Amino acid sequence: MAAFTWGSLLRITFFLLLIAAVVFGFFTLPVEKILKDFLLWVEQDLGPWGPLVLAVAYIPLTVLAVPAAVLTLGGGYLFGLPLGFVADSIGATIGAGAAFLLGRTIGRSFVVSKLKDYPKFRSVAIAIQKSGFKIVLLLRLVPLLPFNMLNYLLSVTPVPIGEYMLASWIGMMPITLAFVYIGTTLKDLSDVTHGWSEFFNYSLGVYHIGPSCIW
């Protein structure tokens, strides 16, 4: 029991430090410039590998619970609607799967400790036992919780990862398509990354506000 307790404590401490590092970094580093440089690199240097690299970039952002809307807009801007949608859709799904697996394994204790902040999610967890695919699909279509938080909360439910991935992929398609289309209408990479910091701050506010304002 002592080993389990210390292990849980270490995992929770690791997650808290990771979150603190991410928040500190995004408040102190020139994130908009970094994202713009990344998209510029994808556009100018990667050629046919660009869509794949863009999709893979979703993994660290999603795992770190960082809004990836810039990547979705960038997919539309760089590759157009069909290819941009495919790259963004696959990337968002893989990223969601990575966060899910992290929450189900080494991050489980941390996620469970957060469930008290979302009391209504308990009823969702119960419903998932009977209709996992349908519930996950509905939660993706009607985002009652922030996307990145939902990845982790669902990880401690009994939904199989296959159902989770398929339902997430289908459920995220409408919003992904909308963002990719918006990206196709933008004229410059600066338009893609402009306002990212404001969006990030808003997302932090949503996390901080709590369940009473998002349910």
Helix segment tally: 11
Poorly predicted regions are: 197-215
Q: What structural class should be given to the helix and strand makeup?
A: mainly alpha
Assign a percent range to the helix content. over 70%
Number of domains: 1
Report the mean per-residue pLDDT as an integer. Answer: 76
Radius of gyration from the CA trace? 18 Å
| Strand portion | under 5%
Q: Main sheet? A: none
Q: What is the element string, with H for helices and E for strands?
A: HHHHHHHHHHH
Give the beta-strand count.
0
Shape: elongated
Distance between the termini: 36 Å
Subcellular location: Cell membrane
Transmembrane segments: 12-31, 52-73, 79-103, 164-182
Protein name: VTT domain-containing protein
Membrane topology: Multi-pass membrane protein
